[in-house]
């Protein structure tokens, strides 16, 4: 082969190598019913000075907005798989604070690189029913960011009130749910109430009684009651369960026991018209960016 041809070949090989290095590796995620995740990486071009038998790598989870915090980074060791890939395990017993975690892969002292999402097997998260326990409930849901990177949404709660069916009437909203991560759910729920707390406002807390059957509960809230203090803007009411025993922690109502990381734009409910002191308002339930359940009272568009 002539010198110019050899030079051209080397240039093409360098370009291919650079493209392979620039392309993010993909990770497949498999969830288990306890709240753990396993990451499988099959196409990472490792800059391995020790060769392909050198597995000195780590999966690096970085909490968004908390990188410099003591609990802002979690490193999981990578190990070889039978098919020549890599895998890392995130057991439910590893405490992962609530938030959004960006997923990276790192080799030795090299700068960690973001991972792209592969295939997710999240079947065990659908209609998940955690067993009895008083330890914090761990929920981790992988998802693809708008930039095509892999991230995790993490929750860690005890107690936890999981919202279920939501029924809308003309001027009320009825919610069913189940309480988790308390020693005796039926005793915790006895004489408990649902509290609607107006976010950032001076409105009084509104309460309503619960109907209880074992760990299951239901309640009905009146939109008209919430609209009595509506000031004409947008009022957001966060929903909590408060036990009769004031020494016990309340439970935030949320929907996290499934495979949907962001419910705000997916689980939508039609508004109802309600009379407020400043005229007619629109009232509806919705899920926040954290998948917490809230009610919104606002002026018609």
UniProtKB/TrEMBL annotation:
Organism: Streptomyces rapamycinicus
Annotated stretches, region: Disordered: 1-23
Record-given protein name: Transferase
């Amino acid at each position: 082969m002539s010198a110019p041809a050899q030079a051209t070949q080397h240039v093409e090989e360098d370009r291919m190598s650079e493209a392979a290095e620039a392309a993010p590796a993909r990770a497949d995620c498999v969830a288990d019913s306890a709240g753990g995740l396993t990451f499988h990486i099959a196409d990472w071009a490792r800059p391995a000075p020790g060769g392909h038998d050198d597995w000195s790598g780590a999966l690096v989870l970085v909490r968004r907005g908390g990188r410099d915090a003591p609990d802002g980074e979690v490193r999981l060791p990578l190990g070889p798989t039978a098919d020549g890939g890599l895998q890392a395990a995130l057991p439910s017993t590893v405490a992962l604070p609530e938030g959004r975690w960006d997923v990276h892969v790192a080799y030795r002292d090299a700068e960690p690189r973001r991972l792209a999402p592969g295939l997710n097997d999240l079947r065990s998260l659908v209609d998940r029913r955690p067993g009895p326990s008083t330890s914090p409930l761990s929920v981790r849901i992988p998802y693809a960011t708008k930039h095509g990177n892999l991230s995790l949404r993490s929750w860690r709660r005890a107690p936890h009130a999981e919202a279920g069916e939501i029924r809308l009437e003309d001027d009320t909203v009825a919610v069913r749910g189940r309480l988790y991560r308390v020693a005796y759910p039926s005793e915790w729920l006895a004489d408990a109430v649902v509290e609607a707390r107006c976010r950032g406002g001076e409105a009084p807390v509104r309460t309503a009684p619960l109907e209880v059957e074992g760990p299951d509960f239901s309640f009905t809230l009146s939109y008209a009651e919430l609209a009595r203090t509506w000031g004409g803007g947008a009022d957001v009411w966060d929903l909590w369960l408060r036990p009769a025993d004031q020494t016990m922690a309340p439970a935030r109502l949320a929907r996290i026991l499934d495979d949907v990381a962001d419910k705000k734009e997916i689980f939508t409910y039609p508004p109802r018209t309600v009379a407020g002191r400043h005229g007619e308002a629109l009232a509806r339930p919705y899920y926040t960016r954290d998948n917490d359940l809230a009610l919104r009272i606002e002026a018609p568009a």
